[in-house]
Design a protein that fits this description.
5-stranded parallel sheet; 120 residues; globular; 5 helices
Length: 120
């Protein structure tokens, strides 16, 4: 079973993503902010991390920088899922090493397809 870590502080988004990915046979882990995500990543090695940019404590950009420093997480695919839709935000996310940058609002069906494509 593939593992996915969803990192977002918006409960409605977390609930819909969790439900959808469980339905698609993923083991789902949830973090409400970047620090919680980094704590989970000490124990779990997900195949994919869906990461919001704007979160309390540690934002998505800083979280990704920490993920990229960890040898054990090199195989993880990272997708930014953010309302920050300016070109400079997207470029920053991709330059930090994200595999994809998806702008909110988004299609759940399309996001699942993008995740499946990334991990095949």
């Amino acid at each position: 079973m593939k593992k996915i870590l969803i990192v977002d502080d918006e409960p409605n988004i977390v609930m819909s993503l969790e439900y959808t990915f469980k339905k698609n046979n993923f083991e789902v882990f949830i973090a409400r902010d970047g620090q919680e995500a980094l704590d989970i990543l000490k124990k779990q090695l997900p195949d994919v991390i869906i990461l919001d940019v704007m979160m309390p404590m540690v934002d998505g950009f800083a979280t990704l920088e920490q993920i990229k420093k960890d040898e054990r997480l090199q195989h993880c695919k990272v997708i930014f899922l953010s309302a920050k839709n300016k070109e400079k935000d997207i470029e920053k996310g991709l330059s930090l090493g994200a595999n994809l940058y998806v702008v909110k609002p988004f299609s759940l069906k399309k996001l699942v397809e993008q995740v499946q494509d990334l991990i095949q």
